[in-house]
Amino acid sequence: MLHGHSRSDASSLLQSRGERATPARKAVLDILLGASSALSHADIDAQTRSRGQPLDRVTLYRVLDWLVSHGLAHRIAAEDRVWRYNVAHDQDHGHAHFRCSGCGQVFCLNELRPAFAVSLPEGFHFQQAELTIQGLCPTCNKP
Amino acid sequence: MLHGHSRSDASSLLQSRGERATPARKAVLDILLGASSALSHADIDAQTRSRGQPLDRVTLYRVLDWLVSHGLAHRIAAEDRVWRYNVAHDQDHGHAHFRCSGCGQVFCLNELRPAFAVSLPEGFHFQQAELTIQGLCPTCNKP
DNA sequence: CCCGGTCATGCAACAGGATTGCAAATATCG
DNA sequence: CGATATTTGCAATCCTGTTGCATGACCGGG
Ligand SMILES: [Mn+2]
Ligand SMILES: [Mn+2]
Ligand SMILES: [Zn+2]
Ligand SMILES: [Zn+2]
Hints:
The structure is a homodimer.
Chain A: H1 9-16, H2 23-33, E1 39-40, H3 41-50, H4 57-69, E2 73-77, E3 83-87, E4 96-100, E5 106-109, E6 125-136, H5 138-141
Parallel strand pairs in A: 4-6
Antiparallel strand pairs in A: 1-3, 2-3, 4-5
The complex binds manganese (II) ion (2 copies) and zinc ion (2 copies).
Chain B binds a DNA duplex through α2 and α4.
């Protein structure tokens, strides 16, 4: 599983946008940059805690909201009704997601972009398509 | 918006399956049969209440679970992390859904069935695809 | 038609995820 | 440095959904 970013990007990423690079933001962004799958609030909380720099629960929620609203992360809603977060890979937000029915992990499929002109019933107006693939991740797929 | 079923189907539907036709089940199934979009627990609760036959919150959850596990309803997870329910239209469960970004309503697109051979990264095993269209419903689309 | 086992219901308590209000701490800029 | 705006922490609350347990209803066999 490829990580794609080096661990020290967090601060520079924030600074390059002219945004306040607070410890909480750096820590969370750093964790997201190092993740191979989308992380839940609980996942991130556990990591901050094991790194010895625990954040308040609410602060973590707010940092995540902030990252999303500033285009640095994106948020995925899965069937278990838990938000999961991932660094925003590029500008577009149209890629598909993969959810493992074994372990529940969620992965972004950055290459896979649902692009089809769908014909909707009378009166409906199309804005965006969202595609989620379900299956087994490499780990759960092992025999 | 088409309803597709007559209101008295509920009892017969249950009886034709040799299942207990309790008042709660009849009421909930009846409400689902009369709905033009998928209904949340809260929606259904409000309707039972306004019909003067309120159900216990837990009973409603259990009736809904029961309907789903017996193939009489199906359940949709939307971005707002609320389950929505719909009568099961036919055997297949592979159709797409439409979520209105204006009012939040969810509609089944029974005709639209995602059928594409998707190429996943190495090691991932495909099981099922889930497609959700986002846009404006006929009501919210009005100028 | 009624009796009894099985299944359904109601109520209370609980769980997990997320949000809100508010005061204290921190950053940024002149 | 001090004024101002932003961020953080903590407590309380909300919302959706679940679990345990006792009571009540359904329905097939007698
Ligand atoms: Mn993604
Ligand atoms: Mn549907
Ligand atoms: Zn897995
Ligand atoms: Zn709408």
